[in-house]
Specification:
Helix content: 25-40%
Order of helices and strands: EEHEEHEHHHEE
Largest sheet: 5 strands, mixed
Structural class: alpha+beta
CATH superfamily of one domain: Phosphatidylinositol 3-kinase Catalytic Subunit, Chain A, domain 1
InterPro entries: Gynoecium_Dev_Regulator, PB1_dom
Protein name: Octicosapeptide/Phox/Bem1p family protein
CATH class of one domain: Alpha Beta
Shape: globular
Number of helices: 5
Pfam family, one: PB1
Length: about 200
């Protein structure tokens, strides 16, 4: 005697369906506190019953536009007990659970799936250091103003020319100010001007 296919509603179903939600959050519902999925998108994905986890992951990634982790709700559990699907064995056990629940309900059931972005284990690239940026800057051409200011900072100090009284006493007067400027034309050497504290420059 041949058994009726009506006793096994999944006997002629070569495919299984996942109701996939992603981009939202699982939050308690007001006022009873029952967990519900809020926001995001929900789509239906139909795959072959013999699909492997790697093949399923590719299809889920194409649907979401990015790699995702798969967590599913068992037929008799709430959203606080989602099961992570990380291997082909996990996927086979999940399908078996839904097959038993569908047989008891005499109707095919869709697997409730929730997709989450994987946690990144890599570190963000560090910004370029000031040393590297300064070394890069040293190879770039500099403006005349910048080159002139550097010359002012690094120019050698001019020789001191003390007055006759200072030379006689062996002491150098302290009220000397030094200034230099470049003469006209390329390659001109700096001209040093010495202020001896009086109202004129030497």
């Amino acid at each position: 005697m041949v058994e009726s296919n009506s006793q096994n509603p999944l006997a002629l179903k070569p495919t299984i369906k996942f109701v996939c939600s992603y981009g939202g959050r699982i939050l308690p519902r007001y006022p009873d506190g029952k967990l519900r999925y809020h926001g995001g998108e929900t789509r239906l994905l139909s795959v072959d019953r013999s699909v492997s986890l790697s093949e399923l992951a590719v299809k889920l990634g194409e649907m979401c536009g990015t790699a995702v982790n798969l967590r599913c709700q068992l037929p008799t559990e709430d959203l606080d007990a989602l099961v992570s699907i990380t291997s082909d064995e996990d996927l086979a056990n999940l399908i078996e659970e839904y097959d038993r629940a569908a047989a008891a309900a005499a109707a095919p059931l869709k697997i409730r799936a929730f997709l989450f972005a994987p946690k990144s284990s890599g570190k963000l690239p560090s910004p370029p250091s000031s040393a590297s940026s300064s070394s890069n800057g040293s190879t770039s051409p500099k403006s005349p103003a910048l080159a002139s200011s550097r010359c002012l900072r690094h120019a050698p100090r001019p020789p001191v020319h003390p007055n006759a009284a200072g030379r006689a006493s062996g002491k150098v007067p302290v009220k000397y100010a030094y200034h230099f400027q470049y003469g006209g034309g390329n390659g001109s050497r700096p001209v040093y001007v010495i202020h001896n504290g009086s109202s004129h420059w030497q």
